[in-house]
Each structure stands twice: as C-alpha cells, then as structure tokens.
Amino acid sequence: MCPQECMVPVLALWYCAGLLLSSVHLCAGVEECILGIVGQPILLPCLYHELSVNFSIEWRKDDKVVLRSVWDDKGNVETWSLNHASIPADAARSGNFSLELPAVHPREDGVHYSLFLISGENQSSPLCSVCFKVAASFSISLLKREHMAGNETTFLCHSTGGYPKPSVYWLINNTLQPPKGSVRTLTEFDLSSHFFSVTSNLTISVSKNDNVSCIVENPSMNETLRYTYKPNDDEPVQSRASEAMWIFSTGLCVVVGIMVIAGVAYQIHLDNISKRRKKEYREEKRGYRRRQQNREEDEVMTSESRETEL
Ligand SMILES: *[C@@H]1O[C@H](CO)[C@@H](O)[C@H](O)[C@H]1NC(C)=O
Ligand SMILES: *[C@@H]1O[C@H](CO)[C@@H](O)[C@H](O)[C@H]1NC(C)=O
Ligand SMILES: *[C@@H]1O[C@H](CO)[C@@H](O)[C@H](O)[C@H]1NC(C)=O
Ligand SMILES: *[C@@H]1O[C@H](CO)[C@@H](O)[C@H](O)[C@H]1NC(C)=O
Ligand SMILES: *[C@@H]1O[C@H](CO)[C@@H](O)[C@H](O)[C@H]1NC(C)=O
Ligand SMILES: *[C@@H]1O[C@H](CO)[C@@H](O)[C@H](O)[C@H]1NC(C)=O
Ligand SMILES: *[C@@H]1O[C@H](CO)[C@@H](O)[C@H](O)[C@H]1NC(C)=O
Ligand SMILES: *[C@@H]1O[C@H](CO)[C@@H](O)[C@H](O)[C@H]1NC(C)=O
C-alpha cells in the first residue's frame, strides 16, 4: 500500500512520536534542562576535545562570567571563579569541562549556563549550553479539621519550603472532586528564600465515612504529597487524647489525695505531739507550781517560825 519512499517518513514519524512520548524536548528541538535540587551540588556536563594551545574558556551564567580558565603551551595558567564554581583540574587533557556548582539556589531557576572557548582574539559560539531548572521538596503538609457553625467542616492543608509553584487539590473518597466554591487556595512566594508556600482550605459538609485528601504535586521534583484525613482515625485519636486526660486527671487526683491524706495525718500527728507536749508541760507546770507553793508555804512557815522565834 505504502511505497518504499513513504515508509521512511512514516517510520520517522513513529520514531519521533515515540521520542515525544518519552521526552518532549528531543523532537521539539528544545535544549534539555538540567534539574538542580536546591541546596545540593550540581554538575553541568560539557565535553570538548578539539583544543590546541594558548586558549581560555569561560563558563557564563546568562551573560555573566562565573568561571574563567587560561591555558598556554605549558598548561593551566590561571583559573578564576565565582561562588566556588569549578571544573576538573585535568580539563584540558581529558576534555571534561563540566562545571560543578557547590549549591543550587532557587534564584537560578531558568538561567542558562554556556561554555565559550576563546582562542586569540576569537571567541567561539557556545560549546555547551545548559538550561537550568530548579526544584525543592515541599515540607510535610498538615491536614486539620475545624468544626464550624452548622454541619460544615474546614480542612486546612499547608505546604511550605518548596519550588516551583505546586498544584494543590482535594479529593473526597480518593476520587471525587469537592464541589466548586468549597476550596480556597492561597499561594505565597517568599522573596527572600525564593520558596513557595501554599495554604488551601476546604469547607464542606462531610459524612462520618468520608475520606478527605489534600494532594500537593511538584512535578519538577517528581513528588506527590498526599495527606488523607481518615474519619475513623479521628475517634481513636480523640479518645486516646481523652483517655490520656482521664489518666492524667485521675493520677493527679490520686496524688493530690495522697498528699492531702498525708498532710492531714501529719497534722494530726503534730497535733497529738503538741497536745501531749502541752499536757506534759501543763502537768509539769502544775507540778512545779505545786512544788513552788509547797516551798513558799515552807518559807512562810519558816519565816513565821523565825518571827516567832524572835
Ligand atoms: C602561546 O603563547 C606563548 C606566549 O604567549 C607563545 O610563546 C607561543 O608561541 C604561543 N603558542 C602558539 C601555538 O600560539
Ligand atoms: C567530568 O568530570 C566530573 C567531575 O569530576 C565527573 O563527575 C564526570 O563524571 C566527568 N564526566 C566524564 C564524561 O568523564
Ligand atoms: C580567528 O578567526 C579568523 C576568521 O574566522 C581566522 O582567520 C583566524 O585564524 C582566527 N584566529 C585564531 C587565533 O583562531
Ligand atoms: C445540616 O444537615 C442537615 C441534613 O444533612 C440539613 O438538613 C441541615 O440544613 C444542615 N444544616 C446546616 C446549618 O447546614
Ligand atoms: C479511606 O482511607 C482508608 C485508608 O487509606 C481506606 O482503607 C478506605 O477504604 C478509604 N475509604 C474510602 C471510602 O475511600
Ligand atoms: C483558611 O482558614 C483559616 C481559618 O479557618 C483562615 O485563617 C485562612 O485565611 C484561610 N485560608 C485561605 C487560603 O482561605
Ligand atoms: C465515601 O465512602 C464512604 C464509605 O464507603 C461512604 O459512606 C460515603 O458516602 C462516601 N462519600 C461520598 C461523598 O461519596
Ligand atoms: C518519578 O519517580 C518514579 C519512581 O521513583 C520513576 O519511575 C519516574 O521515572 C520518575 N519520573 C521522573 C520524571 O523523574
């Protein structure tokens, strides 16, 4: 049916379609971007072997030189770089001019790094050009439940510290989209950290059996975070909490009770001691007084007797 001549384009088309499926870049002719994870080092690959002597190379970030290295017939003369960017020490010999950056910052998202060869007065077109894509993982999102007036419940999903902007959506029972108007999502971009944070609220009437999930997708990181609020977990958590409270308050009561009893017992003991002491003291005093009286009487008697003697 199809003549030999048309088979080639058809096959090419299929081949291209296959490639398109696996990688959009190749067939579209778009340069491939390198993904840098924020905070991690990255290698921008570049191999070039056709070198003579007396040349220099420059790695540029857009138009700004980040690394310059000069060779003459004896070897490497000097290397200068910004922010600890580096190339292999044996680059001229191995032809491996890959640029290593010690850490990726989200500010660098979308920049292009290019390697230029300068030989005498002449500057080559870029030997390598790498587009740079930056990504960072989002932190753990929380899913909270707040009871509102009426039957409605608000679920709160919070996701921070990631890059680029994620997509956030909700599912009920893992399949159903929540009704329109029930979701409010606020995405914020922090200018100083260059990170995104997302707060999404879902306010909805849910039955006791509904699963509610918040899904945060960051395709650049190949990352999907899902937090499912399982209604059945709510009760054990709550009951565990109240159980804990019960144990705590009972424990507190027991401890306070023991302390009170001990206190009362000690007080009674003290009272007994002091009563006994008082009694003893009183008895002692009474005895002393009696003895004193006797002595006084004796004295009176003796004085009287003395008087009488006189
Ligand atoms: C390289 O530069 C040195 C000094 O600048 C010069 O003596 C030498 O001839 C140059 N070599 C070539 C191949 O241009
Ligand atoms: C080029 O050098 C880098 C850094 O030393 C290394 O990780 C990489 O594997 C090298 N590439 C090749 C093709 O040798
Ligand atoms: C620079 O380029 C010009 C023209 O393209 C060429 O004639 C000349 O030989 C080149 N010089 C060097 C040092 O490569
Ligand atoms: C609560 O739900 C019941 C039944 O689902 C409904 O009749 C009632 O109007 C709801 N109340 C509010 C305040 O939404
Ligand atoms: C809710 O989530 C739990 C745990 O993931 C699952 O076992 C259960 O089948 C889910 N219920 C529904 C209705 O999707
Ligand atoms: C989500 O709800 C909380 C209180 O329920 C509110 O403070 C916050 O502004 C809401 N966020 C959005 C994005 O609607
Ligand atoms: C979710 O699943 C539960 C259990 O299967 C069911 O009782 C409930 O009606 C479902 N909710 C929705 C909105 O479909
Ligand atoms: C995402 O991760 C999965 C599992 O680790 C892997 O199979 C897939 O190739 C990754 N996709 C991309 C675009 O990195």
What does it look like?
Helices cover 35% and strands 34% of the residues. The protein has 310 residues and is of the alpha+beta class. Among the domains are: 31-135, Sandwich (Immunoglobulin-like), CATH 2.60.40; 142-229, Sandwich (Immunoglobulin-like), CATH 2.60.40. The protein binds 2-acetamido-2-deoxy-beta-D-glucopyranose (8 copies). The site of one 2-acetamido-2-deoxy-beta-D-glucopyranose (NAG) has 6 residues, from loops.
Q: Main attributes?
A:
single chain, 310 residues, alpha+beta, Immunoglobulin-like, four-stranded antiparallel sheet, elongated, disordered C terminus, binds 2-acetamido-2-deoxy-beta-D-glucopyranose, immunoglobulin domain
Query: H/E order of the elements?
Result: HHEEEEEHEEEEEEEEEEEH
Main beta sheet strand tally, sense and closure = 7 strands, mixed
| Percent of residues in helices | 25-40%
Which ions and ligands are bound to the chains?
A: 2-acetamido-2-deoxy-beta-D-glucopyranose
Structural class label: alpha+beta
Stretches with pLDDT under 50, minimum 5 residues: 6-13, 15-29, 234-248, 294-310
The 3D shape can be described as elongated
| Overall mean pLDDT | 75
